[in-house]
Each structure stands twice: as structure tokens, then as C-alpha cells.
Amino acid sequence: MTTSDAVTSTGTILLGPIQVRGEVLAIRRSGDYFLLAFAAPGVPERTLPGQFVALAVGDATTSMLLRRCFSIHHVDPAGSLGGTVEIVVDAHGPGTRWLADLKRGDAVDVVGPLGRPFSLPKDPVPTVLVGGGYGSAPLFTLADKLRARGCRVDMILGAASESRLFGVLDGRRRATNLVVTTDDGSQGERGQVTDVLGRILDENGGQVIYGCGPMPMLAALAKVAEGRGISSQCAVEEAMACGVGVCMTCVLPVTGNDGITRMVRSCTDGPVFFGDQVRWDAVGTVPDDCLGSPNAGRS
């Protein structure tokens, strides 16, 4: 094992990331989003659910120096060009719009897979997977892994409106039960994912909640899990500038098993964290009791 390797909590050896020059294979619309598929030899074999890739944007003369990070939606190690990766792009800025305008055959520079993945239960237990908007992207490969372990998988997908949902058809194929919510009631039940989460947990006896989506959603589902005495794992959506732990822009306060709060990097220590360890009310700040805080120890 090299120094770039890691071992998950289930004992799986996780190979370190690589940088490859990929090739766009397809790009298509999915509601308000773009599903981008590209060849990236060596990346699929290393990928576990919850990890992400960092893509360079712009041409050789671009002023956009920072990569853009995306959760990995799907991988296929047996792709015709040596393995394929799919990501979901919400084109709302110059970098993501550049990616959305790529054509088949265009080159794309990829680093991945990055970050710590979701942990899988040792025993078959009922699970609930909760996704908000395109944050649901990594949950479908996770569902496949959970089902292979004999876990029941229920899924809740939510968004502001029908066009902002992602993966409803994939969810129906994979989940024992799928519930869809939209804020405006344009599809499924009117409301937010946390409005139905308690009901789904009661119906399936869920023991683990997995979530990926906006930070307020993750904070809410972590609170539900803690109140019921069950586990939650959250893939956070903190903005990442480098993706490899150098720039420190994606830090958030997390309490370790020793009870000490530290500012940790979402890109390397996450993006997946246990929900009861994230200091959700202090995200975006450095708490006074955080290790290294300039106010630590002051009354």
C-alpha cells in the first residue's frame, strides 16, 4: 500500500487519486442539469460511492485557474475507452457553463477519485437515502452497494421544483420505496424531504440515514437521526477550490471521537461525515471552543 492509499471503515483498500486526460463521450440534459459522461482510465476502478472528481475548466489561456469539483454519479470500469465516469453539472457560473458546452470528443483534465466515501453497514439493516436536487447524484451507486449487502433501501428525493429534481427514474429502479417531494408541489408531495423522513423511518425501521444535498437539509436529517438514536452519514456541499486539501477554503467544524472540535477539510477529511459530529450551527465560523481558535479558553 502506498502513502496515497487509504482503508475504509469496512476494510476495503481505497487507491489514491490519479490525474488523467479524459475524453467527453456524451452530454445530455436532465431537467435543469447536464449529465456529462467522459472516459477517465483508471478512475472507475478506484471509486467508491460518495467520492468526487475535480475537473479543469477553460482552455489553455483561461483565467479560470481553479478546478470544479463534482460528486461521481456513475462509473463503468469496462468502458470502451478504458473506463467511464458520469457527473451532474448545474451550469450556473462560467466554469460549469464551459463544461456544459463541451462536445463529444473534447478533452477534459480530471483528478480523482477524491475524498472519503460513504461507509457501509457491516450487517444488513434498513437504510434511507435522502437527496436534495442534484446532490442525489452519488446515492444511486450507494444504493447498489447497500442492496448487494442485503440492506433494504428506501429513498427520498427532493428539490424546489420538478425541473430541479435528479434521478427519479433511477431511484424507482433501485429503492424498495421512493418518495419524491418538491417545495412547490410540481411533482410528488408538497414540502421538503425532512417533512416525510420520520414517516419513512417509521415504516421501514431505518437504522442508517445517508444524505447528500444542501447544508440545511443535511443539518435537519442529522438532527432527526440523533433524536432517534440512529446513525447518519452526510456528504457535505462545502465549496472546494482545490479538492486536495491545500487551500483550506472548504473547512468546517467537526467534533472528533475525543470530543474535541477541529476545523477539518471537506475535500480530504470528507466529504462524508457522520451527521452527529458536524457542528451544523457553527458551519461557516470558527467556534470559540475549537482547537486552535484565537478565542479558545477565553471566558
Quick tags:
299 residues, alpha/beta, Elongation Factor Tu (Ef-tu), domain 3, Rossmann fold, 2 domains, 7-stranded mixed sheet, 6-stranded antiparallel β-barrel, 5 helices, 17% helix, 32% strand
What is CATH's topology name of the largest domain? Rossmann fold
Average per-residue pLDDT, rounded, comes to 91
Q: Can you tell me the CATH architecture of the largest domain?
A: 3-Layer(aba) Sandwich
CATH superfamily of the largest domain: Nucleotide-binding domain of ferredoxin-NADP reductase (FNR) module
Structure, described:
The structure is a single chain. The protein is an alpha/beta fold and 299 residues long. It folds into 2 domains: 6-114, Beta Barrel (Elongation Factor Tu (Ef-tu), domain 3), CATH 2.40.30.10; 127-282, Rossmann fold (3-Layer(aba) Sandwich). It has 5 helices and 17 strands. The strands form 4 sheets. The chain has a 7-stranded mixed sheet with strand order 12-11-10-9-13-14-17. Strands 3-4-7-6-5-8 form a 6-stranded antiparallel beta barrel. The chain has a two-stranded antiparallel sheet with strand order 1-2. Helix 2 links the parallel strand 9 (127-132) and strand 10 (153-159). Helix 4 runs parallel beside helix 5 (215-228). The longest helix is centred in the last third of the chain and has 14 residues, at 215-228. The radius of gyration is 19 Å and the shape is globular. The N and C termini lie far apart (47 Å).
